[in-house]
Amino acid sequence: MRIALLAVLVAACGGDDGGGVPVGGDGGTTHTDGSSHADSSTGGLTGDAAVGLLAKEFCVSETNRYRAMLQKPALTESTTLETYADTGAMVDFSSSPHNHFTMTGGGGISFAENECPQQGNWNLSFGNGDLGMTVGFCILQFFQEGPGGGHYENMMGSYATLGCGIYVVGQQLTIVQDYGD
Fold first, then answer.
1. CA distance 23 to 20
2. Distance between CA atoms of 4 and 129, rounded to whole angstroms?
3. CA dist., res. 46 & res. 36, Å (int)
4. How far apart are CA 154 and CA 147, in angstroms?
């Protein structure tokens, strides 16, 4: 599944400088200009919110594609973990990688985390301005670490659920994956 979207990968993380927006999410998410629109194919969301929602779904399906290559069971997308990952992406954007996860001890729901942080210069150019391609490139980097690499081990771990969060400010972004039972 390829999704033409907007922006992402791995090295450092951060928090909110007031100019960014989480992408996708529930019906409460709006465009960066404050508007929102309905579209049935994305749960009533269009524009930036729909793009973000599709990028999060792609994050889970792309992770499952790599897991299937190694005969690992598919992870179920978790909206609870997604909300937690969105907060993590926002907090870490302005602070440091995995800061939110460390401060909250996984919030009692996340047992492992991968991150492509803006401090590592993750931005939309990794996907030629396309968020979906950027998410795909981020996940590829986790996979290419191979056995023994922390991100790879999380990705292939014995978890059952996954939530992806994305926070964008201009062209810079932080992508977070949180894994749970």
1. 9
2. 10
3. 7
4. 10
Question: Contact, 83 vs 53, CB < 8 A?
Answer: no
Q: Closest Cα partner for 23 from 56, 49, 60, 59?
A: 49
pTM of the model: 0.77
Where b means 16+ CB within 10 Å and e means fewer, 50-83 reads: bbbbbbbbbbbebbbebbeeeebeebebbeebbb
**pLDDT digits (tens), the chain, 181 positions:** 323 222 222 222 333 334 565 665 443 332 222 323 233 333 433 456 778 889 999 999 999 999 999 999 999 999 999 999 999 999 999 999 999 999 999 999 999 999 999 998 999 999 999 999 999 999 999 999 999 999 999 999 999 999 999 999 999 999 999 999 9
Question: What is the rounded distance in angstroms from the CA atom of residue 139 to the CA atom of residue 7?
Answer: 13
**What is the rounded distance in angstroms from the CA atom of residue 135 to the CA atom of residue 160?**
20
Q: Are 82 and 165 in contact (CB under 8 A)?
A: yes
DSSP designation for 160: S
Element (H, E) at 33: none
Rounded to whole angstroms, how far apart are CA atoms 99 and 168? Answer: 17
142 vs 2, 22, 112, 114, 151, CA distance in Å? 18, 22, 13, 8, 5
